[in-house]
TrEMBL record:
Keyword Plastid recorded: no
Function: Pi subunit of the heteropentameric ligand-gated chloride channel gated by gamma-aminobutyric acid (GABA). GABA-gated chloride channels, also named GABA(A) receptors (GABAAR), consist of five subunits arranged around a central pore and contain GABA active binding site(s) located at the alpha and beta subunit interfaces. When activated by GABA, GABAARs selectively allow the flow of chloride anions across the cell membrane down their electrochemical gradient. Pi-containing GABAARs are mostly located in peripheral tissues.
UniProt-recorded name of the protein: Gamma-aminobutyric acid receptor subunit pi
Swiss-Prot/TrEMBL catalytic activity: chloride(in) = chloride(out)
Quaternary state and interactors: Heteropentamer, formed by a combination of alpha (GABRA1-6), beta (GABRB1-3), gamma (GABRG1-3), delta (GABRD), epsilon (GABRE), rho (GABRR1-3), pi (GABRP) and theta (GABRQ) chains, each subunit exhibiting distinct physiological and pharmacological properties.
Keyword Transmembrane helix: yes
Broad class of the protein's primary localization: membrane
InterPro entries in the cross-refs: GABAA/Glycine_rcpt, GABAAp_rcpt, GABAAR_pi_TM, Neur_chan_lig-bd, Neur_chan_lig-bd_sf, Neur_channel, Neuro-gated_channel_TM_sf, Neuro_actylchol_rec
Gene Ontology MF terms: GABA-A receptor activity; GABA-gated chloride ion channel activity
Pfam families: Neur_chan_LBD, Neur_chan_memb
Gene Ontology annotations for the cellular component aspect, listed alphabetically: apical plasma membrane; chloride channel complex; synaptic membrane
Record family assignment: Belongs to the ligand-gated ion channel (TC 1.A.9) family. Gamma-aminobutyric acid receptor (TC 1.A.9.5) subfamily. GABRP sub-subfamily.
Localization per Swiss-Prot or TrEMBL: Apical cell membrane; Synaptic cell membrane
Length: 442
């Protein structure tokens, strides 16, 4: 064989698609898929069809959506909320079990009659289904006991009902500034992953009536106030994608926190007022009440924050109330310290002193004799008789300081407890009025 003939043979073998290049097999298979035809090339398998519907699904291609190259597919959805097992303030999420139902029409599956057929869930692998996913989902799984919890139902007009049972943990951004008198708004969002709005259109089946079960939920700390559905779109770099939104509001039940936190802290404040009815001389009793209430209040504050350890950046309503209670308890302890100190100072100033007025007058007459004073114009020094200016300033300032100190000096320490019996409860009631009015109505 000549060199020219060998080159022609090599060129001919290079164009042998079925024997030489595996890439050409996949390419030819892809061409067959685009033409909606069944074909075999080498080891490439044929397009499978639904058992019992071979005449209907002959040439059916699950890799191509209905109306491929034409109008978008209308996908109507409905939801059943089976349960919301947990709502975590520390992790900012909630866990729910939902039944997701999707309906769409595939003209390739139209058959005569008015019947519907429920197919085995494993046959879903032979049909085209939407690529719906849950936005902001942290963890999700499809139930598979005893079989995968999926449903496929085929109607004569080509409508397909595809139902799934899913448990998902979804993020929910919470504002805890009014905790535990807060209302949180959470969302469950469904979106197409790969098909944009030119390929699929998401709609709710019956608006707000597309969601069931959420109004019957019994949660430990929350009550579902209201819910509503929305239709939206998200603009991303790869296109505009359809999105369905279920938005629901959860109002926290404050009764639990009233019994566990608000009532004990209020009772501790009232317990600190008992010391006002104990005499100032009972140092151990009043000190014990003050220190015990302060330590108990500190323990209560630490316990209330332990359940929300990851959200310490929030100044919550319950923190404000506990801070108010702690201030009143600490103020009662400081009140006793001030009253006891003033009482001890007054007792020290009242030490008995025997004063003999007669001796003072006699000594005064003996030392001062006006007849012995000789006034002479020669030996009188005016500078000695007049006080210097800086000494006058010192005396004036000293008098002012004594007067100011006198304003703050407690003349009768027993009156401190008397006024505290009235002022402490009055100011605590006013603080409660402003607190509850602000956090409940603003």
């Amino acid at each position: 064989m000549s060199a020219f003939q060998r080159r022609q043979a090599v060129r001919a073998s290079a164009y042998d698609f079925s024997d030489r290049l595996p890439f050409n097999k996949h390419f030819m298979h892809f061409v067959c898929l685009l033409k909606h035809k069944r074909c075999s090339l080498g080891h490439v398998s044929n397009t499978a069809s639904l058992p019992g519907f071979e005449n209907l699904t002959t040439g059916y291609n699950k890799y191509l959506r209905p109306y491929f190259g034409g109008e978008p597919v209308q996908i109507a959805m409905s939801l059943d909320i089976a349960s919301i097992s947990s709502i975590s303030e520390s992790d900012m999420d909630y866990t729910a079990t939902i039944y997701l139902r999707q309906r769409w029409t595939d003209p390739r599956l139209v058959f005569h009659g008015n019947k519907s057929f429920t197919l085995d869930a494993r046959l879903v692998e032979l049909l085209w289904v939407p690529d719906t996913y849950i936005v902001e989902s942290k963890k999700s799984f499809l139930h598979d006991v005893t079989m995968g919890n999926r449903l496929i139902r085929l109607f004569s007009n080509g409508t397909i009902l595809y139902a799934l049972r899913i448990t998902t943990t979804v993020a929910c951004n919470m504002d805890l500034s009014k905790y535990p008198m807060d209302t949180q708004t959470c969302r469950l969002q469904l979106e197409s992953w790969g098909y944009d709005e030119n390929d699929v259109i998401f709609t709710w089946l019956r608006g707000n009536d597309s969601v069931h079960g959420i109004e019957k939920l019994h949660l430990s700390q929350y009550t579902v106030e209201r819910y509503y559905t929305l239709i939206s779109k998200t603009q991303q770099e790869t296109g505009s994608y359809p999105r369905l939104i279920l938005q629901f509001e959860l109002r926290r039940n404050v009764l639990y926190f009233i019994l566990e936190t608000y009532v004990p802290s209020t009772l501790l404040v009232m317990l600190s007022w008992v010391s006002f009815w104990i005499t100032l001389d009972s140092v151990p009793a009043r000190t014990c009440i003050g220190v015990t209430t302060v330590l108990s209040m500190t323990t209560l504050m630490i316990g209330s924050r332990s359940s929300l350890s990851k959200t310490n950046c929030f100044v919550k309503a319950i923190d404000v109330y506990l801070g108010i209670c702690f201030s009143f308890i600490f103020g009662a302890l400081v009140e006793y310290a001030v009253a006891h100190y003033s009482s001890s100072q007054k007792c020290a100033a009242k030490t008995p002193q025997e004063v003999n007025i007669a001796n003072i007058l006699t000594s005064y007459r003996r030392n001062i004799s006006f007849t012995s004073i000789e006034i002479s114009s020669d030996n009188v020094n005016c500078n000695d008789l007049t006080m210097k200016t800086h000494e006058k300033i010192k005396r004036v300032l000293r008098n002012k300081m004594h007067r100011i100190i006198g304003y703050f000096t407690i003349q009768n320490p027993s009156n401190v407890d008397h006024y505290s019996k009235l002022l402490f409860p009055l100011f605590f009631m006013l603080a409660n009025v402003f607190y509850w009015a602000y956090y409940l109505y603003f």
